[in-house]
Amino acid sequence: MTALTPSPDAVARLRGQPGFDQAMRVSTAAAVALYRGDRILNALLSDRARALFPHVALYLHFAPHREGELGLTVGAMKEMCARIGLCSGGRCEAMLVLMRATGLVASASNLDRRRRPLVPTDKLIALHRERWGVQFDAMSAVLPEAVAYRAALNDQAFVKTFVLELGRRFIAGTRVLDGAPELEPFAERTAGMVILFSLAHGGAPDQPFPPEGPVPLSINGLATRFSVSRKHVLTLLRDAEEKNLLARGGAGNDAITILPPGREAIERMLATMFLYMAECAEVALQAAGREGRGTDAVASLSA
């Protein structure tokens, strides 16, 4: 199985498309709006792992008999999390307990008492339809075919194949952050990416996105908004400064600038994510018997 990460050329072409600025604004605003500050979950997994964990559960649920997986069980989740380096077995079990307690997964009836399968609930499916939907809305500013992807989310056949294709590529080695490895420290920290996105939205609406000039900075405001400590925010920003992604300034350090390497990394990461989702959605559209209206457009960008 080979990795299917969008090429640097495809990413560059998408970044040059009219509307990419607007797509980034909508995508990052949605990510901030959908963020759920939960101290228990935050204590268990990084932002990256917490975002991916439910996708792994959905993948294992849909995968049996097609991808050679064992279905959604505690053992299968632990094996998969170890295989892709997502989290330890103990944290995996703790996350599944929390997902059951919050109604995201439930026990499935099963005659074989040696296996204890789980199933995703309607609540989990609806949550992901919402999150995918807002990203398709954002992508439509640069990839108009994303309107068809959004509409197809009401089709269970589309959702199943979309989940399987996302999972297949991830297991093969596709990583959104491969296009912007500089941002990995944000992804591996609690609320790291949404803090970065929040800072990017500190610029005026008529400024480029991400903004080129200084934006207001409130350590207390970020800590309160995203349910983390002031020390956590300060450490995140200091690490980003050391990597030449951000620079603090202004009277009392009440402003911060996203430096050119940081702005470019945000663009590359979002372009990679848009292409990844679009390519998987095209596969799902065709498998569900729907017209792949964007096939040529996505292929031309990804070639």
Could you describe the largest sheet, including whether it forms a barrel?
Answer: 3 strands, antiparallel
Proportion of residues in extended strands: 5-15%
- Helices and strands, in N-to-C order? HHHHHHEEHHHHHEHHEEHH
Q: How many helical stretches?
A: 15
The largest beta-sheet arranges its strands as 3-5-4
How many β strands by DSSP? 5
C-alpha end-to-end distance: 19 Å
Radius of gyration: 20 Å
Query: What's the mean pLDDT score?
Result: 86
Helix content bin: 55-70%
Shape estimate: globular
Class inferred from helices and paired strands: mainly alpha
The low-confidence parts are none
Folded structure, characterized:
The chain is mainly alpha-helical and 303 residues long. The protein has a domain at 10-37 and 121-179 and 265-302. It is built from 15 helices and five strands. It has helices at 8-15, 20-34, 39-44, 47-62, 74-83, 89-101, 122-139, 146-152, 156-172, 184-187, 192-200, 219-225, 230-242, 260-287, 295-302; strands spanning 105-107, 118-120, 215-216, 246-249, 255-258. The strands form two sheets. Strands 3-5-4 form a three-stranded antiparallel beta sheet. A two-stranded antiparallel ribbon has the order 1-2. Helix 2 runs antiparallel to helix 7. The protein is globular, with a radius of gyration of 20 Å. The model has no long low-confidence stretch (mean pLDDT 86).
List the SSEs and their pairings.
Blueprint: H1 8-15, H2 20-34, H3 39-44, H4 47-62, H5 74-83, H6 89-101, E1 105-107, E2 118-120, H7 122-139, H8 146-152, H9 156-172, H10 184-187, H11 192-200, E3 215-216, H12 219-225, H13 230-242, E4 246-249, E5 255-258, H14 260-287, H15 295-302
Antiparallel strand pairs: 1-2, 3-5, 4-5
Helix pairs in contact: 1-14, 2-7, 2-11, 4-5, 4-9, 5-6, 7-8, 9-14, 12-13, 14-15
